[in-house]
Design brief:
With 221 residues, the chain is mainly α. Helices cover 62% and strands 0% of the residues.
Length: 221
């Protein structure tokens, strides 16, 4: 038991060091989706599934000028919404989910986006990743949302060896102190987006290579 605690403590120390180093490369790790209200963020995160934040921001820049509240989206014509969000991909499913989620917010939560992960995941079309983002970004909660960047970076570093987001989330929650969960989420996303890219990762610009299993494999070190 004592040995396991020592191993866990060692992993946590390395995890903290990784965060501290990533802060040097990415000093202002924040959500890059544009929004003014928790509901706008909810819509933006739903749209961001398998789509870049840049594209989502281009779409919501015009979308939110006309539609921005739960009432607006609960009453929007589905075909109109599909047309407006077409370029985000999977537009039919996303349009249906946004309308249903807006209706849920109106009917079940008195028009206000719920502020807990447990309530957020009860909204139509809202999975744990989306709930964690909204909880952390809109309400200042501590959560680690696992998107493709977090999944990739976590596997490359060696926190996990899995393609299951829920397993990655649990492992990262154990590795990082709770008060830094949201920061860890943003740092891993930024690192995956700008340095540890899916193709041609820029290892020469990375300052956590000594902790990275992927780098050790490709460099032979």
């Amino acid at each position: 038991m004592a040995e396991k605690k020592q191993v866990a403590a060692g992993k946590q120390q390395v995890a903290r060091e990784i965060l501290d180093r990533l802060l040097i490369i990415h000093p202002q790790p924040v959500c890059e989706l544009n929004f003014d209200t928790p509901f706008e963020l909810l819509v933006a995160v739903i749209l961001s599934a398998q789509c870049t934040d840049k594209r989502v921001n281009e779409v919501t820049k015009e979308l939110f000028k006309k539609y921005s509240t739960p009432e607006d989206f609960a009453n929007i014509d589905v075909h109109e919404l599909e047309r407006l969000i077409f370029s985000c991909g999977f537009y039919r499913n996303k349009a249906a989910n946004i309308i249903k989620a807006a209706t849920d917010v109106l009917v079940r939560f008195d028009g206000k986006v719920p502020s807990t992960v447990e309530e957020l995941v009860t909204l139509a079309g809202v999975g744990r990743k989306t709930a964690n983002v909204v909880y952390a970004v809109a309400f200042g909660g501590q959560a680690i949302a696992v998107d493709t960047h977090v999944l990739r970076v976590s596997n490359r570093i060696g926190f996990v060896k899995t393609d299951k987001p829920e397993v990655v989330e649990k492992a990262l929650m154990e590795a990082f102190p709770k008060e830094r969960w949201a920061q860890a989420h943003h740092l891993l996303i930024h690192h995956g987006r700008y340095t540890c890219k899916a193709r041609n990762p820029e290892c020469d610009k990375c300052n956590i290579c000594e902790f990275c299993n992927y780098y050790k494999e490709i460099s032979g070190r």
